[in-house]
Specification:
alpha+beta, Dna Ligase, domain 1, globular, D-amino Acid Aminotransferase, Chain A, domain 1, Rossmann fold, 427 residues
């Protein structure tokens, strides 16, 4: 009987399907996380450690191994723990992206520099730490521009600016994001996601040329020199500029096959240029007159909490977390998508005001909408919401997943659920 292999998983998750996947593959799970999931059947050993602290995790793993524990693969589904997983897998000599590759993907300035040098289309990108530097870059690149944190997530702080006054406001907003532990409005307070997605030594303000064109996302798994796309997601509704808070996804893409091929080829070229070798990726691009331009490369699977992977599974039959784990286990990246993908998609539901959530109305009505197949709560009664864009982009209280005979069916279902389901506030 083959020996059971052990997976070191760094950081827990809110997604129960994801957490079940290692055991479904027959793996023993060692979980390095400050707070484990409530269901202790999802893991076998818990290392109580801050999952975003490299040195603490390394010390805990060294101690575990010294006491006779074994590790056959290292994985994480959490953006903020990617650099930790890279350090651990490198130290243990196991498959995974190198620390240098993770830095190249997480530090958006490095991403821009590497891609430009490799000839992969991407916005002109500069990084600044003072407003005088920002003014000089604006004079060089010209408006409109996009400002964003050098390394963060969830579209935090990302702002389109059209003039000098907007440049100053956006710069001051972003440079002030790194220190606060929370955002407060009156009696309501929420955590600052910059601490969740923090990356060491990357706390500048990124300035990029504004790229027009429809936006798309690609999820891939790669290893052993193979880069395999699972799905291209269309983003069917335009962003509410000047901010870029994510909205609905629709899968499969409605683009012509030639454009889809160009998007995949550009995504793979970007991953190779950045040194990605083993793992998953969620690449965001805009389709321009010049061709697809990389907006950012995320060195992990897309939205493992946000129904991205479930949408892919409903559409193509491929469960990304399983394929990612197989890659870090050193198995061939070899999966087959359905020849005729099923239309599927999801949308976040955003709270409409600051306050304390007392509950929700319209749950039964939303679940009864034809095509709705999943509802995931991102907030619970008693939680606070602080509407403060773009400093705090996190106002999603629920996610809704749908599938149908056509894209129109999917989008209609999502819109129906969004109309029905609303938060109720304490006052």
């Amino acid at each position: 009987m083959p020996e059971t292999r052990t997976l070191l998983m760094i950081a827990s998750s809110l997604n129960p399907d994801l957490l079940k996947t290692p055991h479904e593959l027959g793996l023993e799970v060692v979980l390095a996380a400050a707070v484990p999931p409530a269901d202790d059947s999802l893991y076998d050993v818990h290392l109580a450690v801050d999952e975003m602290d490299e040195e603490s995790v390394l010390a805990a793993v060294r101690s575990y191994v010294a006491d006779g524990g074994k590790v056959d693969a290292v994985a994480t589904f959490h953006e903020g723990a990617l650099h930790v997983a890279a350090r651990v897998s490198a130290e243990l000599g196991l498959p995974g992206n190198s620390p240098e590759a993770v830095r190249a993907m997480r530090d958006k300035y490095v991403t821009g520099q590497v891609l430009a040098e490799a000839g992969v289309l991407t916005p002109q990108t500069k990084v600044v730490t003072t407003f005088s530097q920002a003014e000089a870059v604006a004079a060089e690149l010209g408006f409109p521009l996009v400002l964003k944190p050098q390394a963060s997530g969830a579209s935090q702080g990302v702002t389109k600016v059209e003039n000098a006054a907007e440049l100053k406001a956006a710069f001051e907003n972003i440079i002030g994001l790194y220190e606060p532990e929370s955002f407060t409005e009156g009696e309501y307070s929420v955590p600052n996601v910059a601490h969740i997605y923090a990356y060491p030594q990357a706390q500048g303000v990124l300035i990029q040329e504004y790229v027009s064109g429809d936006e798309f996302a690609v999820d891939l798994v790669y290893g052993g020199g193979e880069f395999r796309p699972m799905a291209i997601h269309d983003k069917p509704y335009p962003f509410a500029e000047p901010h870029f808070i994510e909205g609905a996804y629709a899968t499969p893409s409605a683009l012509p096959e030639a454009d889809q091929m160009r998007i995949v080829e550009t995504s793979v070229a970007a991953l190779k240029a950045l040194g990605a070798s083993v793992g998953g990726a969620h690449v965001e691009l805009r389709l321009t007159d010049e061709g697809p331009k990389i907006i950012e490369v995320n060195g992990r699977l897309g939205g493992t909490t946000a129904f991205v992977q479930e949408s892919i599974r409903e559409s193509t039959g491929v469960w990304g977390p399983r394929e990612y784990l197989r890659a870090v286990l050193g198995e061939p990246v070899d999966f087959t998508v359905k020849p005729q993908p099923t239309p599927a998609g999801f949308t976040p539901l955003l709270a409409d005001r600051t306050g304390e959530i007392a509950g929700f109305e319209g749950i039964a009505e939303a679940e009864a909408v034809p095509g709705i197949i999943g509802l995931r709560w991102m907030a619970k009664p008693g939680d606070h919401v602080v509407i403060k864009y773009p400093e705090n982009p996190v106002s999603c209280f629920a996610l809704v997943l749908a599938k149908g005979e056509s894209r129109e069916d999917v989008l209609s279902a999502l819109e129906g659920a969004e109309k029905a389901l609303k938060p109720v506030y304490t006052n």
